Amino acid sequence: MENRTEISSLGEFGLINHLTRNFEIQNASTLLSIGDDAAVVDHFGKQTVVTTDLLIEGIHFDLMYTPLKHLGYKSVVVNLSDVYAMNATPTQVTVSIGISNRFSVEALDEFYEGVYAACEKYKVDLVGGDTSSSQKGFIISVTALGEVAPGKFIRRDTAQKGDLICVSGDLGGAFLGLTLMEREKKIYLENPQVQPNLEGEDYIVGRLLKPEARKDIIDFFEQHNIVPTAMMDVSDGLSSEILHLCKQSNLGCRIYEDKIPVHDRARQAAFKFGLDPTVCALNGGEDYELIFTLKQEDYDKITLNEEISVIGYTTETEEGIKLLTKGGNTFDITAQGWNAFTK
Amino acid sequence: MENRTEISSLGEFGLINHLTRNFEIQNASTLLSIGDDAAVVDHFGKQTVVTTDLLIEGIHFDLMYTPLKHLGYKSVVVNLSDVYAMNATPTQVTVSIGISNRFSVEALDEFYEGVYAACEKYKVDLVGGDTSSSQKGFIISVTALGEVAPGKFIRRDTAQKGDLICVSGDLGGAFLGLTLMEREKKIYLENPQVQPNLEGEDYIVGRLLKPEARKDIIDFFEQHNIVPTAMMDVSDGLSSEILHLCKQSNLGCRIYEDKIPVHDRARQAAFKFGLDPTVCALNGGEDYELIFTLKQEDYDKITLNEEISVIGYTTETEEGIKLLTKGGNTFDITAQGWNAFTK
Known about the structure:
The first copy, chain A, is an alpha+beta fold.
């Protein structure tokens, strides 16, 4: 029999002590961590970046196919992705959770294992949070702090006309992972004897359940003195992010369908599900890649990095926000990305 | 008929634009605010304080008697209270909300009116957040940043033997306000014709629904060169906070019942409900006062401030954590404060 320790047996402060007992501070800027009214951070001579995300069971994740350890990892990573998207280095996170009594201490331990794994990988300190009961479902709120040299942060509204539009990694994989998991869930609910068939799908499942933040791209920029003119992360789907970037920068753009990076395994999965891989890349969310614009003269510098694709360029506003398809047609790019309130 | 705009008619980004359209930045340290992946804060030469709280409908508040504007105000204030409890000045907040479709845009406007009122009063900037749908109920997560001169933050575990134990304001009022509102709610649910009777109870109702953070006390410390040896805010009830402060500082204490400040109106309400006012002060939560310890030689300095009460002093650990009652008895102080997981 598995152990099950009721959370009420520890109490709130006992629980906090339990969950944070093995955590070691990794940043010299972390002066005071968990256990007081607030954490204290020293950002002498740096600028502080702060970002926050709320993740709610049934809206952002389904515990039927999301292991708690992966959920803890992902909850941290999606915030770090926002910090990197500012060209900053994440340094601290706070993690708050609201939980119903269906969760045991062992279940929370799994979640925090994931939180700690992400903190360790990205060298950030967990410095606080709040634990609460919830009436229904698991609620997670993460805030990340990061630091950046004065004036070196990169906004999303500062792209210039004629800049190259680039993305890191590949797109659409997380959405296809979600499609697969939802399909397998449905099959399981209809017939619990059928085991999920995830063979050969580890790539798209990994994109969904264990995303990574693109620290490597930020490091590459620094090593090669590359300064994007604008940058943001791709969390709601490429089309949604392109619209933000162009509209906020008062620009139009041309995106080439055949330049949008889609992983072979994602493409195969799309065909299997009868989906268009390009639509998955444009409208699927949660890839946590970076989209950024570069001056054209920086083109040579980025060809060094296979993880960066140039997918188009910015134009005058009047030219519209356009996709040029493989078949030679031109379409307006519209926001069909993830929308929290209509789906 | 009242206006009701569905949130889905705005979409997530439309909603964010709508809710933040009138907000002006108040702190020079706020370099980049709402609308990018993260906010950017300049804390050159200061240390950054970060704290976060999660508020969940049905657990932390009841919308049946909590106006949304008050809720927005309180959500910010409870976080600022934690920043002041570090002897720091709050500068920025992020506010994330999860909402079900039973809320209209007008309802959220009311909530944000309260958020903005608190930001304006305490001169902090709203710099970000996340909006999401929820499966059930209203979920609020606020993170506050503050700044403090290097090394000037005050921890809760640094009290010294023989220090005076002080609290600001008065205690137990919020709990009595909650008791009153719960009573009136019960009466109303049994007989909706009966109007709530809150006459003469505005003090305790205000303590519950519109708490303030004790900026004035922190300002007073600065003006009079007072440096508490330890400090925290009183959010879970006096007994719970005394236990934290003493245990984390490895000390015992003597608290005098007759020195615990209880407002006359709270005392009257307690008697009306058949409750012991001291028990309300010890075990009721949400007063958001400050508890702090001072060297004895600082006693003269604080007598200037009528909002500060000396309620006892710290002792050796071996002498225990004790309450001396008006009747001359001595009791151990136990943690009967608010516990998120057993109540």
